[in-house]
Structures are given as structure tokens and as C-alpha cells.
Write a structure and sequence with these properties.
The protein is globular. The chain is an alpha/beta fold and about 425 residues long. The relative contact order is 0.16. α15 (about 390-395) runs antiparallel to α16. Strands 5, 6, 7, 8, 9, 10, 11, 12 and 13 form a 9-stranded parallel sheet that branches. The protein contains 16 helices and 16 strands. The longest helix is centred in the first third of the chain and has 17 residues, at about 110-125. A hairpin with a 2-residue loop joins β2 (about 25-35) and β3. The chain has 2 domains: about 5-70 and about 370-425, Urease, subunit C, domain 1 (Roll), CATH 2.30.40.10; about 70-325, Alpha-Beta Barrel (TIM Barrel), CATH 3.20.20. Bound molecules: guanine and zinc ion (ZN).
């Protein structure tokens, strides 16, 4: 297979930028190169050296643009793409008013395929190369999602969203059908091509104890799968969980009691955690996912990025489309920065980029495979133009170093900053 060398500034990581000093974690080369072969990154190094060593490779010179691992969105809802930015509600009202009516449409495989394809194309145009999505209760929505990803050769995670109470009749399954359909979809898709299946109870208010137990049993039979759900997003939601599960010690216990707490679990939001919940997440090695644009948009609260990282809990970064207000992981990094500021912490651009790539990949147990600009990783690559609009260009023109040049794009950039995207070593023309 053809070899390519991508020339430009390169940014990768050799360590966790949240828990070690970012300067020791980040690897920046202002005249770097990435050798891509057979869909993988074969080498990252000095551009001129790579060129001399591989005269047969086709060279793509990105000048002073920044070559990064593709962004990894660790929690989103592709069925909510068409209703993103819906006005005026907090979580429970927002679900009932906007989300459930839209999700009811996904029994139609044609509509599901249209929105799945649209979501993947929007993701790619924003530099996101991996999605982790909730689908709907309809198996057709899961097929549509994995088919759209396979058509683009994208590494994705997803699963059938299970609900058997507190949702419209048309959006409810049962404990048994949730188990049977999840198992059938898992057998059909998990590990096929670049697909990973995540068993997906939406959140404990929309699952009976029987359904949670059924999905916990499925996870124990298939521990190679991921499990994704929501945890402690809003105060009203937490109070509701308490009333539905009066014997639970806390929100996390409503999962733990039914076999839904484990190292391959992904717990979205995780904002208002009790000390016991933090202890248990750390003990079992579970991952949480920070969804900052959602947390400000739906009015949820301020996630404690550094506090959670300091406990050794893996943390992904995510858009949470369409509770989140943007498809852009640049906007998502900006919101993570702003939430940090409201907590008195200034996350460094290196830390934000680490979260959007390596951090999310770690949360998905895919460290070194995706979200990594280093040898052996899939060549899922995003190239950033650090002067993509006049407003950004005039600011980055006076930058003193790469971080000062990158930060305006994190704070003010959007899909115009995405100069190019590669998926498994294939350049995506016209993203
Ligand atoms: N909690 C349960 N379902 C959802 C959802 O679709 N979006 C968000 N943000 N939180 C949820
Ligand atoms: Zn969500």
C-alpha cells in the first residue's frame, strides 16, 4: 500500500496531560512529519528526516498547519442531530419536549440512515474521527449507525438505548426485549470492522430494576463490550433517582446494584457526585465523560476535571449532541476551559487537546489505537488551520509559541479550522 508523509507542525502526547505536567506530556514539533502506511501511523518525527528515509512516499505538505490525532467524541446521541439547539428547557423537560418525540422517528430505517449519515459527515467536517453514540430503542437505529460508520471506515462505539418506563409508549421496550435485542445487535456488530458495541441503559429513571438487572446480566456474559449510561447530571434528576430507588445509597448504586458498574463502564456527565461515588468509580477503574457544552446549555453544572483526574479516574470529552450545543470538539474544548475558569482552574491548551484525543480514547479503552499521534495507532488524523478566520488569524499572528497560536483556534475555531481529515490512512477529500 502507498506510503504518505504528512508535513507540518505535529502535536502528540506521551503521557497524561491532566495528571503529569503538560510540558512533560506534550510532544510538539514545529517541522514535524507523520509517516502513514497501511492505514496506520508508522512513524512520527522530524519532517526532513522522514522524507530522506522514505523517498518513495507521497508527500502532503501542510505548511505550518497543526497535525493532530483525530478528535474522539466519547458521548453523543446521533438521533438528536436534527434537534440540536432546542430552546428553553432543563434535562427532564428537554427530554420530554424535544428528545423523545424526535427519537420516536427512528423506527423508520430510512430516516435513521439519513440522520446517521448526516451525523458522521458533520463529525468529519468538524475533525471528529470517532463517535460514541446512544442510538434509540429501535434496532434499526443501531444498524443505521454502524452501517454509516462502516461506509466511512470510522471507528465508532454505539448501542441500542434501552428504556422500559418514564418514556412514551412508542419508545419503550421491556427487560426481556432490551436483553434480547441488545444481545442480537452486539453479536451482529461488536468487533466487526471498526465497530465496538456498548450496552446502553439510557439512565436509571427510564429503566426498571428488572431491565437494569437484565442488562447487567448481559454485560457479565459479554464483558468485552463497553457499557454507557448517564450519571448525576442535574439536581432534579438526582432527586428523581432517589425517589425511584429508595434503597440505593446514591445514583451510582442504582447501577452498581444491578451489575452495571465496571471498568468498561462510561458514565456521562458525573457532575454532582457524592464522595462514595467518586471512591467507587476510582476503585473499579470506570470512566466518566465530561460534556461541557451540554452542561452549560441544559444548565447542569460544573464538572471537576482536575479533581476527577487526580483520583485516577479516566475522563473522556464529548459533545453530548444534541443536549450539547455544538458538533465541534473545538467548541467543546472551549466550554471545558470556561467551566474550568468558573471553578478557578485554567486548563492549558495541551490539556484540552489531550482530553479531546488521548483522554477520550483512554475512556473507551482504546488508548494507542485511536486518538494518538504515534506509531501503531490508526491513521485517524485531523489537520488544524491555526488562522482559519480573520479574527483568529490576527490573534495567532502575534503568538509567541505553539500554545499561544493554538489557543485562539480552541476558543474561537469551528469547522473552518479543519484543513483536512484522514480516516485509517485515507485522506477525506472535501470534508
Ligand atoms: N439523560 C438521559 N438521557 C439523556 C440525553 O439524551 N441527554 C442528556 N444530556 N442527558 C440525558
Ligand atoms: Zn447523553
Amino acid at each position: 500500500m502507498k506510503k504518505h508523509i504528512l508535513l507540518g507542525q505535529t502535536l502528540g502526547f506521551c503521557d497524561n496531560a491532566l495528571t503529569t505536567h503538560w510540558q512533560d506530556a506534550a510532544l510538539h514539533n514545529s517541522a514535524g512529519g507523520v509517516l502513514v502506511q497501511d492505514g496506520r501511523i508508522a512513524q512520527v518525527g522530524d519532517g526532513a528526516t522522514l522524507r530522506a528515509a522514505h523517498p518513495d512516499a507521497q508527500v502532503i505538505d501542510y505548511g505550518d498547519k497543526l497535525i493532530s490525532a483525530g478528535f474522539v467524541d466519547a458521548h453523543m446521541h446521533y438521533p438528536q442531530t436534527a434537534m440540536i439547539a432546542s430552546w428553553g428547557k432543563q434535562l427532564i423537560d428537554w427530554l420530554n419536549t424535544y428528545t423523545f418525540p424526535e427519537e420516536s422517528r427512528f423506527g423508520d430505517p430510512v430516516y435513521a440512515a439519513e440522520i446517521a449519515g448526516r451525523t458522521m459527515d458533520l463529525a468529519l467536517s468538524h475533525g471528529t474521527t470517532t463517535l460514541t453514540s446512544f442510538c434509540t430503542i429501535h434496532p434499526a437505529s443501531v444498524d443505521a449507525y454502524f452501517e454509516a460508520a462502516a461506509a466511512r471506515n470510522m471507528a465508532v462505539v454505539g448501542g441500542k438505548t434501552c428504556m422500559d418506563r418514564n418514556a412514551p409508549e412508542t419508545l419503550q421496550d421491556t427487560a426481556q426485549t432490551a436483553y434480547d435485542q441488545s444481545k442480537a445487535l452486539l453479536d451482529k456488530w461488536h468487533g466487526v470492522g471498526r465497530a465496538t458495541y456498548a450496552i446502553t441503559p439510557r439512565f436509571s429513571p427510564t429503566s426498571t430494576p428488572d431491565q437494569l438487572a437484565a442488562l447487567g446480566a448481559l454485560w457479565s456474559e459479554r464483558p468485552d463490550c463497553l457499557m454507557q449510561t448517564h450519571l448525576s447530571e442535574q439536581h432534579d434528576e438526582i432527586a428523581w433517582v432517589k425517589s425511584l430507588f429508595p434503597n440505593a445509597r446514591d445514583y451510582l448504586d442504582t447501577y452498581e446494584a444491578f451489575g452495571l458498574l465496571g471498568a468498561s463502564g462510561l458514565y456521562g456527565h458525573a457532575i454532582h457526585l457524592e464522595p462514595r461515588e467518586i471512591d467507587r468509580l476510582a476503585e473499579v477503574g470506570a470512566a466518566v465523560v465530561h460534556c461541557p457544552t451540554s452542561n452549560t446549555f441544559i444548565g447542569s453544572g460544573l464538572f471537576d476535571t482536575l479533581g476527577i483526574a487526580a483520583r485516577g479516574i479516566r475522563t473522556g470529552l464529548a459533545t453530548d449532541t444534541g443536549g450539547g450545543s455544538s458538533f465541534s470538539m473545538l467548541h467543546t474544548m472551549a466550554a471545558a476551559y470556561e467551566i474550568g475558569q468558573l471553578r478557578g482552574v485554567a486548563l492549558h491548551p495541551a490539556q484540552l487537546m489531550w482530553m479531546a484525543t488521548e483522554g477520550s480514547a483512554q475512556a473507551l479503552h482504546m488508548a494507542g489505537q485511536i486518538g494518538h499521534l504515534g506509531a501503531g495507532a490508526a491513521a485517524d488524523i485531523t489537520v488544524l488551520d491555526l488562522a482559519s478566520t480573520p479574527a483568529i488569524a490576527q490573534r495567532s499572528a502575534r503568538a509567541t509559541d505553539i500554545w499561544d497560536a493554538l489557543f485562539p483556534t480552541i476558543m474561537m475555531g469551528d469547522d473552518r479550522a479543519i484543513a483536512d481529515v484522514w480516516i485509517a490512512g485515507v485522506r477525506q477529500q472535501g470534508v
